[in-house]
Amino acid sequence: MSDRISTADLKRMLAEAARCLRGQQQYLCELDSVAGDGDHGVSMLRTSEQLEAAALDASSQSPRALLKDGGWRVLGVDGGASSALLGAFFTGMADAAGEGDLDCESLAAIFESGLNAVLKQTRARPGDKTMVDALAPAIVALRSAAASGAPPADALERAAAAAHAGAESTKALVARYGRAKLQGEKTLGHTDAGAASMALLFQGFSHAFAAQREMNHGGR
Hints:
This protein has one domain (7-216): DhaL domain (Serine Threonine Protein Phosphatase 5, Tetratricopeptide repeat, Alpha Horseshoe). The chain has nine helices and no strands. The protein is mostly helical. It is globular, with a radius of gyration of 16 Å. Helices cover 69% and strands 0% of the residues. Helix 7 (132-147) runs parallel beside helix 9.
């Protein structure tokens, strides 16, 4: 099992995250229709296209360059607050990334930097029924995994599980930000679209590295 993530691994992670978002476009639109204008899936489709473009750009030869490019591409998506926050997430990750491969500790550090960048752009915090409800626990899980000496693939798997659980937890919350806030109690019982898309993002991250690990070791 590899204990480091290369730029090529990161590109596969972005590509797989894009695939996961694209595959759930309709579902994300349905979630958004409860309290928004129902176009979140469309915004995430555009985001996925930009993540794929970043993954295919041969000029990005380091984690920093790749994440910076991906972040700026996503920031250029006309997708309202969601794409702006996701763009901030990736550019924030780039701020803490370097030129070489990432071990689990440095992987956790760049994800924490991404979370901090998001939190600087929004007053939303866990419990407010936003993407933060999926993002924050994912980062906690990633950091905990790194501290326990887990390899990156396992850490990403734990982060994906935490993000999914965080997204599911938004069903029991009342929206406090954005257009959804206007719907108040009507948002109870429904998963927040932003949290769902963040969980899909981490699902892609995990699947991509796990698949690469299996390929490298012949399924052993």
